[in-house]
Structure formats: C-alpha cells, structure tokens
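The data are quoted verbatim for completeness:
=====
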Amino acid sequence: TELLISQAKKFNVSVIGVAKNADQIKAALPNATVIDGPLASTEIAAITCDVVLNGITGSIGLGPTLAALRVGNRVALANKESLVAGGDLVMSLAKPDQLLPVDSEHSALWQSLMGGKKSEVSKLVLTASGGPFRDRIDLSTITVAEALNHPTWSMGPVVTINSATLVNKGLEIIEAHYLFAIPYSQIEAVIHPQSVVHSMVEFADGAVIAQLSLPDMRLPIAYALGFPARSDIAFGAIDWTQLSRLDFETPDK
C-alpha cells in the first residue's frame, strides 16, 4: 500500500484501482479517484486513454483486456491468459494494431513478421531458456527455491514456476496462434539457454528472421508502449565482443 501511494504521488496519478485498503489510500491521495473492488482493473481499463498495459497474472486479466478493446483503447498485452482463456472472443474485438504483444517471444515474432508477408510464413519458432532444470535428469529432490531461481530472466513467481516446467511455453504457443492467426502445425519451440534470440520466423524460401537482445523486459514493454516508434534508450543492447555463442536444442517432450 505504501509503495502504491508513493508511486501515485510521484507520477501524479489521477485514478487508482485497488482490491483492499481503499480508505487508507483515499486518505493519502485526496485528489485521486480510487476505485475499489474486484472489478477495479476492468473499470480502469475502460477509461479512454492512449494505451492500456495489461500486466495482470492469470485469467482474471481477461476482463480488463475485453473492456479496453471495447472502448477502442490500444492494449499492450502482457497477460497471455487473456488469449489462452478467451482467444476467439478477444480477437473478435481487436482491430488492426489495437492488440500489441509484450511477452518477449511474441514481441520478437511481431517484429520479425514485418520482414515478409503472412502468406510467405513457413513457421513461427518460439525460444525457451529451458529453465533451471534443463540439465537435471532426476527431479525428485527439487525445491521451490530452485524452481524460482530462473537462469536468465527475473520474473514473478507464477511465470517463473511455469517456465521451470515449460508449461509457460505451451501457453505462449496458444498465444502466438491467436495473435498472428497461424495454425498450430506451423508453430514450434526450441530450447535456447542464452535467452538472446527471443523468437524467429521462418519464411517459405528458407530465410529466417529473428529478434535478438539481452533478456530485459523493458525493451518489449517500451516497443509496445511507443509503437510504431522505437525508444531511443537501448534496453537490452548486446555487447558483441562478449557474446560468444548461441545454442539451440530440441525440447524433450
């Protein structure tokens, strides 16, 4: 609560949504409108604005996504469950360039797809770090702490656990299917431990276009928020004198 209040003051926020401690926040921020309750995020997403960034974890993020699309707001989507749980509904509402991917893999596909026509696409290839247990044969003694110790990304606990089990990659394949209207038969995943190649598009002539950057979520977030312009701050810039190798391997299904 204290962090929320300090951020609201720092950025002069006019509307805040919370599920608890509303009275404390109202007292601390008398000039702000405080929306209270389980539908607060959905109500905020429906306020006309430049862009709604949906970074909620879980299918509870579907409501705000739909609300934002219905009023014509552009949605920068980091909530993959919106498409996993309600992909047909979401895509039926989204107009061209209204739904912008923020997941690093889907941002990479989005950028790479600009290199050709959709009719020329042979396959989409999502990369996965393999998580902390990529080289472990015996998983009988693993701990929660080990599962939360992701080798390349710093993320919240839900996505980190889903990455450790590779469930996250399954969800991302569903997300890619809806975002780009590509059949599942043309979407696959490869293990890429360095997390530098964020995804690739293979075209009919065999050419592959990929997006590379260091594992820094600020880059795909900034790209979605500023689209069609790119940020002039180099988040995730690669030092090519230090990057010595890029490895790929097939997932063990």
